[in-house]
Design goal:
Layout: H1 3-24, H2 29-33, H3 43-66, H4 74-78, H5 81-85, H6 110-130, E1 139-142, E2 146-149, H7 150-173
Helix pairs in contact: 1-6, 1-7, 3-6, 3-7
Length: about 180
Amino acid sequence: MDANQRQVVLDGLAASEVRLLALLDGLTAAQWSFREAAGRWSIAENVEHLIVFEEFIRGQVARALEGPAETEKMAGAAAKEGLVLGLAESRTTRLNAREALRPQGRWSDPSEMVAALRRTRARTIAFAQETQADLRAHFFPHIAFGDLDCCQWLLVVGQHSLRHALQIEEIKASAGYPEG
């Protein structure tokens, strides 16, 4: 990952964290748990999913880096860069989370969940700042896009957070959302 790519990753991670934290600031218990419709996630469930997803992706990146470089996949992954960078805004295609990444009530206290979100993001940012690995030559598959390189996966983390920030904004704007 060159300096420009690293900066794009870091900017995406920082911007999505700022946006999420602003959306979560001052929420009441009723707002945390409100569902806009049956089968939709609450704000708390969105945040739980984000934490678990990010930890999972960082672990997958570490495992991918332990394997050999797969330079033959680089051209195919490069062609998907637009998909990766457009993930947040392309919400017409619904992506279903793996069972292990779905909310299960892992945190009951919103402040503990926000602290976990911050710790998780801090670890991801530290990894992105410090790694010297060739992230563009190691891959693992996305549920919809197929093989992405590890740099793209770090971009996905930021885009995924923005995607859920948009979901949280929809929840907050929906009919019946509890007043402060």
